[in-house]
Write the structure tokens for this entry.
Amino acid sequence: MLKKIRRLLVANRGEIAIRVMRAANELAIRTVAVYSQEDRFSLHRTKADEAYLVGQGKGPIDAYLDIEDILRVAREAKVDAIHPGYGFLSENPEFAEACEAAGIIFVGPTPKIMRTLGNKVSARNLAESAGVQVMPATKPLALDLQACQQAAKVIGYPVMLKASWGGGGRGMRVVESDEQLAEMLPMARREAKAAFGNDEVYLEKLVRRARHVEVQLLGDNHGNLVHAYERDCTVQRRNQKVVERAPAVYLTDEQRTVLTESALKIGRAVTYRNAGTVEFLQDADSGELYFIEVNPRIQVEHTVTEAVLGIDLVKAQLRIADGAVIGTPESGVPPQAEIRVTAHALQCRVTTEDPENKFIPDYGKVTAYRSPAGFGVRLDAGTAYAGAIITRSYDSLLVKVTAWAPTAAEAIARMHRALWEFRIRGVVTNLRFLDQVITHPQFACG
């Protein structure tokens, strides 16, 4: 039973803010929302028990990055804890430290863990020291272009240019030559700085035929750590995931054991706390698995893990932050031996993007909205309703739809049905593209 957390501030917006509030409501925790001026009519502020404007006079993104103002609201609302969601300040160790200094529980890893794992370069170093195979990569790139080009040649083109302090595809570029590196490096630095407040970038070897697979970890404050198996996130556009599934159907039992044990090695090396995801690439030709990064937060695609395991990951986050011990009923997380995959699930991210025009986001008013329903279908949304205004201020995610069933084939068929039940008018969406992806013969076998 929760003892310390009675009032929770959610330092985020949209569907993840609503997702956290729903979990808190079921635990009898009073919720506090923050919102930017642009989000004054947003649905997430109406789902909370209380809502406060933050970042007044700042831009739509900067408002949610305003640590001082968010903590001002936290003090005024007398909250016990802050959940950062994903994106924005979720991987910012300074924010976690500021919460601790204010006597507020941060629902996530410690600042030390975030610094070690949130920075992709230091996380790679830790993985190597733990005996986990990593993808060849550079140290953080110097400002000198020639030094950067020399580092790229040591690895060998093609390479992936990546931000050190964040994910979600921000600051990420495929680079084929010295000339492209010279062109893309300033853009990647600017994008990383805008998204994460730090322009540090590095280079990583690019595997052409790669599968993206990740392992969900949960650790408590008492040194206990478990994995919640894996998710496949190979289907991406502009380096951002659009379709995720669990389990990864292409893994052999031996590969799955290597994958989950590698993730646990990394988690144990830092005594990981709360929810986090360890991400790997698998070379589709050789089957080799390479560690790439850790996301020390809840993931957008956590829904598929919840569907196949029956574990509420956000409730687990809150209970763990409150001191619950993994393996006890109070935590909502069984011991490792009892965590079992009992279904197949996939999640599609429905966005207001035009697949026929390079996935350029569309904006405007949603004039009509009808969502799917029925057994085995889950929706997580923040702006998916008739009358919603889709602006340029934030990302193009409209709604996440998750479908699960006893077999992979049934889960795919259920998702196919769900995607065709959507009726969305007024803005362009990627619905047909998603359906083409999941019904492609290659998707069934990974």
The longest helix spans residues 178-196.
